[in-house]
Amino acid sequence: MKACYPGTFDPLTNGHMDIIERAAKIADELIVAIMVNPDKKVLFSVLERIEMIKESVSHLSNVSVVAAEGLTVDLCRRLGASVLIRGIRAVMDYEYELQQSTANMMLDDTIESIFLIATPELSFISSSVVKNLVLCGGDAEKFVPASVNRILKEKIHGNRSGF
Ligand code: COA
Fold first, then answer.
1. Which of 66, 92, 94, 100 maximizes ligand 1 atoms within 8 Å of its Cβ, making it the mutation to test the pocket?
2. Ligand 1 center to 150 CA (angstroms)
3. Which residues line ligand 1 (CB under 6 A)?
4. How far is CA 72 from each of CA 13, 39, 66, rounded to the nearest angstrom?
5. What is the per-residue pLDDT for 159?
6. Whose CA is nearest to atom 2 of ligand 1?
7. Which end of the chain is more exposed for a tag (fewer CB within 10 A), N or C?
8. Domain chopping of the chain, boundaries
């Protein structure tokens, strides 16, 4: 089974990695798809996010990374993926995911959504928390893969005069 894990990944966190590593055991092939969430203003360029995710998943032989615009279900059709993977941390994620996956179901009912419950120790992590922590001078090493932390520090400290 070919599965697609879409998200903004701005940046990828250990919460996302938990979902990727577990989904890679369920799917024959997992495609991590960097998509556009129109409600979010991003810090990292698409190229930076591709680099961060590629480095972080290099130990997983059945995981690849793509970036696309448009609808996630259209990308799934183009890639031949029949399953959409999403992670759920808490009830607030459930309500949002219910809306998204119902919309996706209305758009294409041949693509099934599968939800993985976040590992409890990682359920508080979000990309926003990570960005805020680093902007306030903290180190995100416990929350993101090493390659992400490196690029995160370069990005935020390199532009520090802007804050
Ligand atoms: N599970 C879920 N979310 C987790 C998580 C976990 N285990 N661990 C951490 N999170 C956090 C993320 O860090 C992120 O935090 P943030 O809100 O502070 O940025 C948030 O939960 C979820 O972000 P992410 O997983 O990166 O993706 P998203 O919710 O922004 O992605 C898209 C949404 C891109 C999948 C969706 O907008 C989309 O499909 N866009 C294309 C257009 C489309 O087809 N829309 C649907 C039909 S209308």
1. 100
2. 22
3. 6-10, 13, 15-16, 18-19, 35-37, 40, 71-72, 87-89, 93, 100, 103-104, 118, 125-128
4. 21, 15, 12
5. 56
6. 87
7. C
8. 2-123
Share of the chain above pLDDT 90, in %: 87
Superfamily classification of domain 2-123? HUPs (3.40.50.620)
pLDDT digits (tens, 9 = 90+) for 16-34: 999 999 999 999 999 999 9
CA of 8 to the centre of ligand 1 (A): 6
CA 127–ligand 1 middle distance (angstroms): 10
Counted residue by residue, the chain has a size of 163
